[in-house]
Design goal:
Elements lengths: L1 E3 L11 H13 L8 E3 L6 H8 L32
Antiparallel strand pairs: 1-2
Length: 85
Amino acid sequence: MLEIQTPSQLNLITDTDILALLRLCFEQLDSDMTISIFIAEPDDAVDTVDKLSGCPILSNCFGDCRFPDPDFSPAREVLEDHGTF
């Protein structure tokens, strides 16, 4: 999993679509802001993603509902579909 906090770390990203999106994000953000962008990679275990990001992705932090329960809703600030990611 990649954690991106500064524009200088964008060289770690090989996917051109993700790279373009994150370049745009950094252009639009106030340079004094502190951010962490986590990019899960195919070999990352769910437990690892949960631990490093601090955000449970397959369980609801407000109840006992877990994926794939039809009532499951993931904790998120933003969830977007960009076609390839």
